[in-house]
Amino acid sequence: MRIATYNVNGVNGRLPVLLRWLEESAPDVVCLQELKAPDEKFPEQAIRDAGYGAIWHGQKSWNGVAILARGCDPVETRRGLPGDPEDGQSRYLEAAVNGVLVGGLYLPNGNPRPGPKFDYKLAWFDRLIAHAATLIGMDVPVVIAGDYNVMPTDRDVYKPERWLDDALFAPEVRAAYFRMLDQGWTDALRTRHPDETIYTFWDYFRNAYARNAGLRIDHLLLNAPAARMLEAAEVDAHVRGWEKSSDHAPVWIELGT
């Protein structure tokens, strides 16, 4: 089973790129982020015509997450993180697909730091960690995938000294990421590429993609049953070079039997 995460940076504006990649890569499950569309504007028919069932949690202009499943409909198990009933931002969706529980997330950016957006990011991360604690011990494969908006280590960012004041590289945010890993989650991409420079995001400015001046902020975390099945983890970096592409590239894992 191939499970992918892809921040599309606007599902309608980038729809041709998304459909091209779905046809090329044929992932079994895809977690999408930054739909930037209300529920009624989600391109359900185009996704279905491409062979995918879908569930989505949209929001006008901002945020928004979806889970696609090839040849079937994801069975939704959760919409939104527990812990804050007043949180109206569309950032988390969870579904069962062919025996795997998949959580798709778009963690807050948190800039500027310090400030209320950074406080919200830390609080949201705490809620994610609390929810992840209820999933880590499941005896079925669990994958929590998405745009975490955190570079865990210096190896995950081009010229880390330039990011010291940014919310994506803040010590508190990196510490939260490792608190989650300490529950027993496996960072699939880093596990398969322990010493490589590997990025998932390249800014539109300063010719970042051509210079490979990137960030690794899109992650797939696996519980123990999923980690035992892990056969591959890769970034489709070439997709970032397509015309009118997102500033993120799709990231995927392959789970065996």
From TrEMBL:
According to UniProt, where does the site described as Important for catalytic activity lie?
A: 218
Picking any one GO molecular function of the record gives: double-stranded DNA 3'-5' DNA exonuclease activity
Under Gene3D superfamilies, the record lists: Endonuclease/exonuclease/phosphatase (3.60.10.10)
Q: Which GO terms describe its biological process?
A: DNA repair
**Record site: Interaction with DNA substrate:** 248
Note on how the cofactor is bound? Probably binds two magnesium or manganese ions per subunit.
Record keywords:
Hydrolase, Magnesium, Manganese, Metal-binding
Q: Which residues form the active site?
A: 106, 147 (proton donor/acceptor), 248 (proton acceptor)
Parts of the chain that traverse the membrane: none
Which PROSITE patterns does the annotation name? AP_NUCLEASE_F1_1, AP_NUCLEASE_F1_4
Q: Which cofactor does it need?
A: Mg(2+); Mn(2+)
Family annotation (InterPro entries): AP_endonuc_1 (IPR004808), AP_endonuclease_F1_BS (IPR020847), Endo/exonu/phosph_ase_sf (IPR036691), Endo/exonuclease/phosphatase (IPR005135), ExoIII-like (IPR037493)
Query: Which Pfam families has this protein been placed in?
Result: Exo_endo_phos
Start and end residues of each Endonuclease/exonuclease/phosphatase domain: 4-248
Q: What is its EC number?
A: 3.1.11.2
Give me the residues that bind Mg(2+), please.
7, 34, 147, 149, 247-248
Site description Transition state stabilizer, residues in chain: 149
Family, per the entry? Belongs to the DNA repair enzymes AP/ExoA family.
Q: Supply the name of the protein.
A: Exodeoxyribonuclease III
The species this protein belongs to is Sphingomonas gei
Phylogenetic placement of the source organism = Bacteria, Pseudomonadati, Pseudomonadota, Alphaproteobacteria, Sphingomonadales
